[in-house]
């Protein structure tokens, strides 16, 4: 049996065909927001950003892990209520909070190249978060009822919205480091080893799911990768984390914007057009000082949350912006 934090519960499993269903929501502009990680400043920024869309407010789907570092009861309740007022799917965090079986630990299904120290700290974070969530059984029940995935129609284009990958809620097959062609620097920096995800496998998933875009999060590093499929384009886009910095020397989060408007938004980081659907990664410029102070109140130096996330909160990751635009995806002008 795999260790807590590395195992993948059977309830996380599904097949790509699960996405080949009538769309559950329709929108002209859709924000896919994963990995808030309990950051209320990022949540406020996303909601304001969506309201300022030129064609009217964007529809929002929160695709999991909106909780994580929010062990303060008031913050946990507020984030739950605000997220549940929109479309949402559960991530492994929400799935584990709603489960009475704690054998999966954090439910992250970490691959073996992620260090045991990271896994242990994540399990400790989950233990603290469970104690907070236990004060809100009704909200936790609603989190547990959220779907594992959604299919959306954006301007008539089908989009599969996932937390992990097309076969598991906490799957890592759409992690940047797993994608072929491999980025040697990224793979070296994360210590990657394992089975790469090939274009042929991606196309198989796209065909079985009957979607043109797969939008995910979970694995922490953002990117978009175009996939050739004859004359038809396909796209994998992973927003990394909306509530944490994603690139070296930055403090902003990232969300995925999908729109029937063909014009790239003014704040696009990188993007591509799939058919008539415009797909972009947008920065989430939240109040970084407010978030850092709130984080330190809950996770002081020496705590598992601080050891895992404070360096990223203050200095970003090792990823450069140019490494996130892959396979024909273009950086926005001036980036």
Describe this structure in words.
The chain has a single domain, classed as Purple Acid Phosphatase, chain A, domain 2 (4-Layer Sandwich), CATH 3.60.21. 29% of the residues lie in helices and 20% in strands. The mean pLDDT is 96. Helix 4 (116-133) packs across helix 9 (304-315) and helix 8 (288-298) packs antiparallel against helix 9. The radius of gyration is 18 Å and the shape is globular. By secondary structure, the chain is an alpha/beta fold. The protein is built from nine helices and 14 strands. A hairpin with a 2-residue loop joins strand 8 (223-229) and strand 9. The strands form two sheets. It has a seven-stranded mixed beta sheet with strand order 1-5-6-7-9-8-13, with helices on one face. Strands 4-3-2-10-12-11-14 form a seven-stranded mixed beta sheet.
What is the structure about, briefly put?
The chain has a single domain (10-331), classed as Metallo-dependent phosphatases (Purple Acid Phosphatase, chain A, domain 2), CATH 3.60.21.10.
Q: How many structural domains does the protein architecture include?
A: 1
The beta-strand count equals 14
In DSSP terms (H or I, runs of 4 or more residues), the helix count works out at 9
Largest β sheet strand count, sense and barrel closure: 7 strands, mixed
CATH superfamily: Metallo-dependent phosphatases
Strand content: 15-25%
Q: What does the average pLDDT come to?
A: 96
What is the CATH class name?
Alpha Beta
Rounded Rg: 18 Å
Category from helices, strands and their pairing: alpha/beta
Corresponding CATH architecture:
4-Layer Sandwich
Query: What fold name stands as the CATH topology?
Result: Purple Acid Phosphatase, chain A, domain 2
Estimated helix fraction: 25-40%
Outline: globular
């Amino acid at each position: 049996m795999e260790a807590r934090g590395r195992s993948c519960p059977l309830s996380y499993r599904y097949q790509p065909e699960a996405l080949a269903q009538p769309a559950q929501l329709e929108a002209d502009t859709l924000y896919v927001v994963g990995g808030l990680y309990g950051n209320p400043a990022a949540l406020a920024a996303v909601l304001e950003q969506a309201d300022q869309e030129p064609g009217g407010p964007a529809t929002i789907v929160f695709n999991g892990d909106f909780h994580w570092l929010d062990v303060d009861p008031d913050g946990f309740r507020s984030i739950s209520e605000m997220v549940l007022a929109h479309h949402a799917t559960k991530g492994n965090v929400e799935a584990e909070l709603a489960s009475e079986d704690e054998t999966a630990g954090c439910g992250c299904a970490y691959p073996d190249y992620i260090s045991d120290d990271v896994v242990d700290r994540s399990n400790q974070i989950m233990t603290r978060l469970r104690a907070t969530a236990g004060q809100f059984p009704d909200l936790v029940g609603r989190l547990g009822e959220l779907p594992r995935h959604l299919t959306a129609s954006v301007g008539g284009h089908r989009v599969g919205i996932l937390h992990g990958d097309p076969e598991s809620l906490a799957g890592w097959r759409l992690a940047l480091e797993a994608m072929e062609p491999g980025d040697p620097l990224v793979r070296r920096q994360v210590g990657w080893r394992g089975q790469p995800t090939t274009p042929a496998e991606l196309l198989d998933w796209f065909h079985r799911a009957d979607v043109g875009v797969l939008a995910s999060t979970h694995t922490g590093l953002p990117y978009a990768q175009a996939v050739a499929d004859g004359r038809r384009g396909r796209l994998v886009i992973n927003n990394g984390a909306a509530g944490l910095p994603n690139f070296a020397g930055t403090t902003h989060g990232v969300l995925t914007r999908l729109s029937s408007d063909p014009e790239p938004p003014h704040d696009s980081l990188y993007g591509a057009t799939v058919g008539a659907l415009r797909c972009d990664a947008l920065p989430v410029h939240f109040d970084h000082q407010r978030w850092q102070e709130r984080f330190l109140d809950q996770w002081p130096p020496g705590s598992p949350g601080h050891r895992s996330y404070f360096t990223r909160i203050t200095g970003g990751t090792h990823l450069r912006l140019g490494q996130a635009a892959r396979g024909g995806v273009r950086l926005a002008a001036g980036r």
